[in-house]
Amino acid sequence: MSVLVPVFNEETHIREAVAAMQAQHFAGELEFLFMDGRSEDGTTVILTELALTDPRIRVLENPSRRLVSGLNQGLREARGRFVVRMDAHSYYSPDYVARGVERLERGDVAWVSGPPIPLGLGPWSRRVALALESWLGTGGSQKWPSRLEATGSPEIELDTSVFGGVWRRETLEAQGGWDEDWPVNEDSELAARVLESGGRIVCVPELEARYVPRDSLKGLAIQYWRYGFYRLKTARRHPSSLRRSHLLAPVVVLTAGAALLAPGPLRPLARVGIAVYALAVLSASVQVARRASTRDAIGVPFVFATMHFAWGTGFLAGCARFGPPLRALREMLSVSGRD
Fold this sequence. Notes:
By secondary structure, the chain is an alpha/beta fold. The protein has helices spanning about 15-20, 45-55, 65-75, 95-105, 125-130, 135-140, 145-150, 170-175, 185-195, 215-235, 250-260, 265-290, 295-320, 325-339; strands at about 1-5, 30-35, 55-60, 80-85, 90, 110-115, 115-120, 155, 165-170, 200-205, 210. It contains 14 helices and eleven strands. Strands 3-2-1-4-9 form a five-stranded mixed sheet, with helices on both faces. A three-stranded mixed sheet has the order 5-11-7. The chain starts with a strand and ends with a helix.
């Protein structure tokens, strides 16, 4: 098993993350490939020290600093029959690797993923984690723990909404690895290719991983703007990857604009739409706030708004840059018509 971990300035969490990776229970051989994008903090020094004490750790320089380039570099260097992607700011269960390989060897799937469980460590990180426990924060994706709990199934079929995963190396090599034109949303774009080639992707609850969300609204806004921008690009190349839920955030952004600028009777209608959105945010915030402190509860609506407006403006910027996803919309309407 080759574990691929792209890293850049991960000094805060890297020791704990590596310790969790080293604790994996796996009967075969493991190697940990850290593709370091020339970190400017102590990440490189820490990894080099750890490599001296554990020969399974290999530190590779990723001069481009791009996450996707690092992943492909790791794939080229990988020696294992199986490959797993892990993130340096996430914490994986000790049997993550073993269970992923076991599910692959049972057959009928090309990609085994697990649910991401947000672990809030800072003030805004906690509020983002709370928002991601709500249907309004997960955007209709099937990969979240709440969706798995609702089905009661030992696994759930996934579309292109994925979090990391475990593969046979040959599966990734057959796809040519990750597309380096996708610095963001790269796993979703790869998932679209895997699905189009006839492969199945499943999410298994036992492969849960805890990850630390952004700890500032500015960082969250940048993250979600990029998510929306590259989700549009993915939809342009892979029309079947667009879900109806992907349209919620850009519609909210357009409605907000219309509430301010639309002529005549459209403006009051748009304001009604924004009022409905505000009520949805308030309702979702109240639901998750029952498990939070007062300060965190007050911050949750701002997290929802940041997520939706950043994602929506990113998606619309993608439309301006690459063109609207007309083929994806036509496919979506034809499926809705058949339903």
